[in-house]
Amino acid sequence: MPAASSASQCGSELGIRMDGGSAAATSDDEQQRDEFRRVFRSASRALPPPHPAVALGFNQSSFTYEGLAAATCGFSQGNLLGQGGFGYVHKGVLPNGKEIAVKSLKMNSGQGEREFQAEVDIISRVHHRHLVSLVGYCIAGSQRLLVYEFVPNGTLEYHLHGAGRPVMDWPTRLRIALGSAKGFAYLHEDCHPRIIHRDIKAANILLDQNFDAKVADFGLAKLSSDNHTHVSTRIMGTFGYLAPEYASSGKLTEKSDVYSYGIMLLELITGRRPVDLTNDDEDSLVDWARPILMQVTEGGSYDGLVDPRLGDNYDPQEMLRMIVRALEGDVSLDDFINVGGKGAQSAMLGSSSSSDYDVRKVGKNGVLSSQEFTSSEDGHTGEFVNGNSQEIRNRTS
Q1: In a shared domain, residues 321 and 196
Q2: Is residue 290 part of a domain?
Q3: Of 35, 143, 192, 195, whose CA is between 20 and 30 Å from 5?
């Protein structure tokens, strides 16, 4: 039978004419079709979301070392995107044209193949619009490589502090603050086991073409089981962002992440780095901001806190709300000033041998309290609350 006739016959059997009209159909036929549509819609809603690799157009999750070497031009210097405490990151292009970011992990991780695969399997299932998706991995001898989606617009650190960069406007800063909060809230509240990032900083916030924030490196964070309130571990993180209680005790909770996020809020507000290495007194951002924050809590002006490059081009209510969120907590102003003092500094000096940085400087951090992120059921998270504090509402989609 010709194809056209076959198609017409199929259409007739469904009670539908190919020319757009309706063929004769009994009420039983209509009821059957209605039932079919109802079941089909129900089944469609029940389908689980696709693996991030599939959703992003990748047809594999396991890569060969040779394939990744070819994609990155032999891990060339020209393809190097950056390096950090976990290893080097290179840009790559697969044969199908898909762009990727390949992280070569340091080889002293001591992690076996089975352990590595198990961790990757968990992390690769984490998918959120404000998280950088892990789409695959490679195991080649002792080498471990992770393959991520490529986020094209660089880091928050680059756009906020990079030499010669245009001034980031206030709506963009607010958009990044809320977007990254959504990502962190998802890690803390919606992942099982919950994921504590451990290294929240501007360099780990990637930006897409629309300056939507995507949290990076969460895949290398410590996984925390729900039946533990903290994880005791070797201190990891970046000087200037560390919560004092984490730096002094090594006890890691999601509140440690929120403290680091608060430092990042201060960065967005002030336009200053967490630590100004060009300044002889080496004051942290927190030390610099403390006197102004004291004025704010006493009803004074916050003008001295705002990035002067913004001029008057910001919403005063939004700015005040962000400053309040950076300050708000269950401790008093005296606690803000005293936290991270001599006692904490002495405790930290005893743990310097297990740290990746000079912990003798960390005792200077101590204005922000450790709050908690909260996430809403519909996934539109971005609010972070503490006790009876008011919620900061999402202002971006």
Answers
A1: yes
A2: yes
A3: 35
